[in-house]
Design a protein that fits this description.
With 113 residues, the protein is mainly β. The chain has no helices and ten strands. The radius of gyration is 13 Å and the shape is globular.
Length: 113
């Protein structure tokens, strides 16, 4: 079955960096778009970044220029490099398989001011 497992979250100060990882299994990873989403308390889940099968990417406006999504089709991994973190980036970050209802359990990112 589809399994997505995020890791790499934590507590960081404003301006710091974190790298999130998502390990994928149970499907043919290389043929699917993958995405990172986040949900802050009291807010709707929002798209952070997507990466397509050809390696092309798109980002939410609030993270453009600070976050970078990448994938490794050999290891079945997707990554999110987050730089210049801000308190408003605090959220639970989720990995998602394409547009399907398959999500990881989430990893907490907290940015202190």
């Amino acid at each position: 079955q589809v399994r997505l497992v995020e890791s790499g979250g934590g507590l960081v100060q404003t301006g710091g960096s974190l790298r999130l990882s998502c390990s994928a299994s149970g499907f043919i990873f290389r043929i699917f778009r993958m995405g990172w989403y986040r949900q802050a308390p009291g807010k709707q889940r929002e798209l952070v970044a997507s990466i397509f099968t050809d390696g092309s990417t798109n980002y939410g406006d609030s993270v453009k220029g600070r976050f970078t999504i990448s994938r490794d089709n050999v290891k079945n991994m997707v990554y999110l490099q987050m730089n210049s973190l801000k308190p408003e980036d605090t959220a639970v970050y989720y990995c998602r398989l394409g547009e399907q209802n398959y999500w990881g359990q989430g990893t907490q990112v907290t940015v202190s001011s």
